[in-house]
Amino acid sequence: MLFLLVTVEKSPAQISADSSKVSVIEKKWRVKKFSSPNSAVNENPFSRINRTMENIRDAKETAAYNRNNQNKGLPLAPPSLRSDFDISNPFYDNKPRIAYVYQIKLQNNGAKTIKEVTWDYVFLDAVTHQQVGVRQFTSKAEIKPNHKRKLFKLSYKSPTDSIKKADVRKKINSPYIEQISIKSVRYADGSVWQMDSK
Q1: What's the CA gap between 26 and 151, in Å, rounded?
Q2: Is the entire prediction scored with pTM above 0.90?
Q3: Distances (CA, A) of 100 to 3, 135, 151, 158, 195
Q4: What pLDDT score does 7 carry?
Q5: For the segment 160-180, what is each residue's pLDDT rounded down to a tens digit?
Q6: Cα separation of 103 and 65, whole Å?
Q7: Looking at residue 66, what DSSP letter applies?
Q8: Distance set, CA 55 to CA 59, 126, 153, 173, 179 (Å)
Q9: What's the domain range around 93?
């Protein structure tokens, strides 16, 4: 499948850490435009299978996240990625699609190897500082002590419901204050760090 990088919204590198002993040293999101398979270059024959498998993985991650949150009385994650059109054929009307890639770079400052991280990409209004959007993800990734790793998540949901695709195409600066909230960390030894819900 062809894709075109439309724009990048990038935040300056920063260090933020909490009792999880995980530092967020980079965060950014970008927009990708996926071309129709009927374009000049044909679609990779395995891309549809890959999309379906990715959707299944994301659905399982969302279900697990929601079961965990429901047991603790926490907010549930929104439906998984491709709810806005048929995942078996995202080009059913032969039009390009816009997708969003959310990326963070983490550093493990603890003594145990990380196996999984649940994280929120939070968007605040630059004037009122009110939360206007949050995208919730779970990433399976091995991060050894004192090591760094980039995590990526693809979503067909924009940072907020009010963002205009026309503005995104104009490559405007992000109108939001962006924050990363580490919700939980699962370690190789089976132990789990969970953010205090209070």
Answers
A1: 10
A2: no
A3: 12, 11, 14, 6, 26
A4: 38
A5: 877 655 455 444 566 789 999
A6: 19
A7: H
A8: 6, 33, 12, 30, 25
A9: 3-194
